[in-house]
Amino acid sequence: MSFISKLLSNILSKIYFGQIQKQIDKDPVMKAKQQRITKLGDDIRKRIEKYKKTDPEKYKRMKDLFDV
Known about the structure:
The protein is mainly alpha-helical. It has three helices and no strands.
């Protein structure tokens, strides 16, 4: 993929993401579900960070796997 193609792809994806986000924000049920997903992601990141001290090998595997 050329530089221009990547650039256009990134620009378009940000535009569409913004439009999708606006639609989610208008729907209370979807907004609540998105907030729950975000919270779960944060909880997983925090849990993986705890492994940094207690089990460094597990931390490295989880970090590579989940891109924390």
